[in-house]
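Priority: medium. Attachment 1 of 2:
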């Protein structure tokens, strides 16, 4: 296929600048969705609407960038495959295992308790929690497809993991997250999602992990007590300042452990696959 002059210029553009432009457009799209589209619908549908239209925006932006590359969605594995549902299900299982691992460490090495919530939980709440699927999907499209692959092709998997982790944290900070929380949460989990994407050659598996972690945090009250919580991780009444500080330290060390394991797994994968990772696609 003959490339147009503007396509040739675009192809030689820095992947970092391409990715930054992609993410800026994605954030701007989310801003427009939040301001102009979400208010049209009932409040209880806000997360669904935000996620669905955010996913549409992510797909649309990706389509434009992919066309500028003179390629197709298939080149970036953004197509439905026979193993897509299987990979998504595997991601859910991995996410649940990781979450239970973290909760187990918190309960074992701190004074924190896992107690039943007073909420009267019903099946309708599961439906509303499903909004996390389009919300997670839009982020995986934006951070683990076109930008991820372009960076990986030029700079390799190791640098791509670090760059996308910083970008993913920055994205959450722009959306109002506390800087330390963004660095200890999304930045760390970006390594897990990126590893899942490169190993499975697609975004179904990391989307499954993403969904499981977010729903699990609500179910276990890890994002604060909410109506979706079945259990609550809480400090016992009358806990000393030292006990509370110890819980915070265990929580921090747990997050660092996840980061260390994810970096180790990244390095293990790189060493195991000494073939040119820059030329691999998802």
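Attachment 2 of 2:
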């Amino acid at each position: 296929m003959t490339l147009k002059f503007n396509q040739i210029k675009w192809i030689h553009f820095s992947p970092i600048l391409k990715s930054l432009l992609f993410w800026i457009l994605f954030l701007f799209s989310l801003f427009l969705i939040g301001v102009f589209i979400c208010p049209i619908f009932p409040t209880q549908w806000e997360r669904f609407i935000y996620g669905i239209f955010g996913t549409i925006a992510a797909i649309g932006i990706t389509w434009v960038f992919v066309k500028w590359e003179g390629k197709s969605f298939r080149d970036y594995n953004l197509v439905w495959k026979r193993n897509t549902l299987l990979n998504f299900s595997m991601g859910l299982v991995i996410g649940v295992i990781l979450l239970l691992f973290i909760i187990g460490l918190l309960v074992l090495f701190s004074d924190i308790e896992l107690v039943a919530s007073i909420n009267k939980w019903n099946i309708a709440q599961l439906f509303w929690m499903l909004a996390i699927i389009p919300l997670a999907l839009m982020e995986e499209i934006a951070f683990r497809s076109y930008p991820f692959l372009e960076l990986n092709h030029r700079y390799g998997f190791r640098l791509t993991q670090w760059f996308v982790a910083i970008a993913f944290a920055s994205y959450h900070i722009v959306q109002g997250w506390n800087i330390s929380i963004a660095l200890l949460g999304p930045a760390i989990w970006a390594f897990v999602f990126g590893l899942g994407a490169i190993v499975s050659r697609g975004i179904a598996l990391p989307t499954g992990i993403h969904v499981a972690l977010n729903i699990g945090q609500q179910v276990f009250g890890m994002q604060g007590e909410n109506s979706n919580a079945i259990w609550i991780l809480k400090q016992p009444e009358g806990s000393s300042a030292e006990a509370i500080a110890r819980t915070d330290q265990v929580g921090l060390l747990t997050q660092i452990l996840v980061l260390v394991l994810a970096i180790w797994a990244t390095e293990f994968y790189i060493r195991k696959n000494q073939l040119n990772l820059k030329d691999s696609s998802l």
